[in-house]
Amino acid sequence: MKRALAIVSIVAAHNAAHAAGGRPMTTDDAALTNTHSCQMETWLQHARGDTQLWLLPACNPWGPFEASVGAVVDYPQAARASTGMVVQGKAQWLDVTPVQVGIAAGAQRVQSLWSLYYAYVPMTISVTSSTQVHANFGWQRDRIASEDQFTYAAALAHDLSRNLNAFAEIVGNDSAAPIVQGGGAVLFRGGVIQLDASFGRPVRGTWRDFIYSIGFELYPDALW
User: Fold this and answer.
1) Coil vs helix vs strand at 16
2) Residue 198 and residue 24 in contact, taking contact as beta carbons nearer than 8 Å
3) Each residue of 196-217: pLDDT tens digit?
4) Which end of the chain is more exposed for a tag (fewer CB within 10 A), N or C?
5) CA 38, CA 96: separation in Å to the nearest integer?
6) What is the DSSP letter of 34?
7) Taking a C-beta distance cutoff of 8 angstroms, is the pair 125, 99 a contact?
8) Cα 117 → chain centroid
9) Peptide bond connecting 24 to the previous residue in cis, omega within 30 degrees of 0
10) Does pTM top 0.85 for this prediction?
């Protein structure tokens, strides 16, 4: 569970306005959930000897801020299932075309222990109307190991068409080899519904260490 949580320590809710910036990327974008709306992301992630099922809803009660509370059920090989949760707040403090910058902070809980605290700065640069570069730089505190780590992530996302996008990214921290992965998403009903998938592995691993995910998301317009 610890390795899996480290992988998703910079996962947050995303805005559907430009779908290439949301799931299935691990790299967060600087956009927010639609104002006066809530969204839902759910996905299954499998790594060697471990499978997780995630549910991550998020709401934006007012323009510059969103909050998310998520849950995960972890199924490690030859071990009992465990549960965890994540809470996060995210704000956008710069939105000047073509650059967006935000700030996010949160905590993760495994069973009854809040084991990880983190904060990071997400940045999005729109290279063209269909291509974006995303970058995250942050910090996380592992209470179990009593370690502080620098975290980073970078992704290149491209809209292949109005309803299809793809991405490639690298995600890691200063105490372990990074993970590289790629994937894409298919959008339906103007981006309200999304199906996606990703596939990758640690840079120093083998193909037996692959990680993949499949997901389903809802990104409605304003609900109130």
Assistant:
1) helix
2) yes
3) 999 999 998 888 899 999 999 9
4) C
5) 24
6) P
7) yes
8) 16
9) yes
10) yes
